[in-house]
Amino acid sequence: MAGGGEDVRSDADLLAAHVAGDRDAFAELIGRHRAHLWAVAVRTSVSDDDAADALQEALLSAHRGAHRFRSDAKVSSWLHRIVVNAALDRLRRERHRRDLAPLDTTADTVVDPTDATGHVELRMSVGGALATLPADQRAAVVAVDVEGYSVADAAALLGVPTGTVKSRCARGRAKLAVSLGHLRDGTSDTAGTDRTPPASDGGGTPQPVRPERGGDR
């Protein structure tokens, strides 16, 4: 904000100002939510590099598509959904690319689920399945089952009643149970989220800076 003071405009006001041509509004908006959006990207990505790329894509999408924001939603919920969708789209594309790759018949085809390769394949399988869910169910399942929010906190994040979150999670989980029936029970995602989010430039668009491991949010 000009003069170095704290910008007291709401998220919605900042987004509207960005649409109207304010060159600093988007940077201010993303600065408020970057740590959370980075955590979302990490939890729904295979690696730090994938998370950084997904966040980059998501913020560029939000920057360019801000005029399509519906004022009846929360800006933070809108940004959250864009990041989730970008991360899952990357997982789905990578899984599709691997499915089309020639099979190495000389390699051992038994995958140890505890090794790095097995972990990546599991994440891509789960991400691909999540990406097939309707957007509202996907957002609820990711918030509760991937990010670990309580139903009440997920409802506040997504801007919907708690009963709606419960219903969407139930329907989404039922579909995932069918899609992921081939996976063994008890496998969980243990990816950490205590990593430093990538920086942005002064214009509000993210820079392709890779995060350092071990950083504090």
UniProtKB/TrEMBL annotation:
Recorded superkingdom: Bacteria
Family annotation (Pfam families): Sigma70_r2, Sigma70_r4_2
Ranges for region Disordered: 181-217
Swiss-Prot/TrEMBL keywords: DNA-binding, Sigma factor, Transcription, Transcription regulation
UniProt cross-references to SUPFAM superfamilies, sorted A to Z: Sigma2 domain of RNA polymerase sigma factors, Sigma3 and sigma4 domains of RNA polymerase sigma factors
Domain RNA polymerase sigma factor 70 region 4 type: 126-176
InterPro entries to which the protein is assigned, alphabetical: RNA_pol_sigma-70-like (IPR039425), RNA_pol_sigma-70_dom (IPR014284), RNA_pol_sigma70_r2 (IPR007627), RNA_pol_sigma70_r4_t2 (IPR013249), RNA_pol_sigma_r2 (IPR013325), RNA_pol_sigma_r3/r4-like (IPR013324), WH-like_DNA-bd_sf (IPR036388)
KW tRNA processing (keyword) present: no
Keyword Cell membrane: no
Domain (RNA polymerase sigma-70 region): residue spans on this chain: 29-96
Matching NCBIfam families: PRK09643.1, sigma70-ECF
Family (UniProt): Belongs to the sigma-70 factor family. ECF subfamily.
Identification of the protein by name: RNA polymerase sigma-70 factor, ECF subfamily
Organism phylogeny: Bacteria, Bacillati, Actinomycetota, Actinomycetes, Mycobacteriales
